[in-house]
Amino acid sequence: MGLLSSGFAGPLYIVDNSRESSLEAVLPSDPRIHYLHLGGRNLGFGAAHNLVRNLELGTFHLILNPDIVFPEPTVLQRLVAVLDENPSISMIQPLICDVLPPHHVQRLCKRDPTLLAQIGRAVLGPIYHRALRRYNEWYEMQSEAYGSSLVLSTYLSGAFMLCRTDKLHRAGWFDPAFFLYLEDADLTRRLAAYGPCVHCPWVLVYHHWARFNRTRLIPFLSAAWSFVIYSRKWGLVGW
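and the corresponding structure tokens:
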């Protein structure tokens, strides 16, 4: 596991919602690993992460997808160095790219969710990206992020969120009302009330990204319901 060789002090909590606990048998023997098996219960992305909020945590807490790959072992040290230099920052996220060559950038530093972006990206797909190219570039902050400077955002991906633990506690962790989708946008926005949330493009990780499947009904309905919840909390923004 790339994370285990990155020099972090731990602990590392692995939350497994599969029916069988076979994953535990293949985990490295490391005292930093704490395995939490849910026996097939899928609590949702945010609620599962919230299970560790009252356990032993350090100064920083990393919310991490299991499909993230660390290309080199100093990823966390470099991000923590930025946090140490900027004590007001609540959360930091590196540049996230496809794991396979040519390692396209996953544009996960975005503006607050809008109805147009949600419908266009989920329903229209390539038509949206062609017809509303300039709008999508604005939404994904393409002229500001993914370059060489720290960029502030109120919507960063839940695939990799390195948070100050005290500010994560103040923000209240994930809202369990979101089962999947937009829980990261909601948390980023609440964390930003206690200090900037930033995209750090000079630190890189890879991501085996399983993009939204528009042909499957349940993920589509889950995404739609998440946008309803988000809009009730923050207000509906059309475009």
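(Above: one complete record from the training split.) The beta strands are 12-16, 33-37, 60-64, 68-69, 91-98, 109-110, 151-152, 155-156, 160-164, 197-207.
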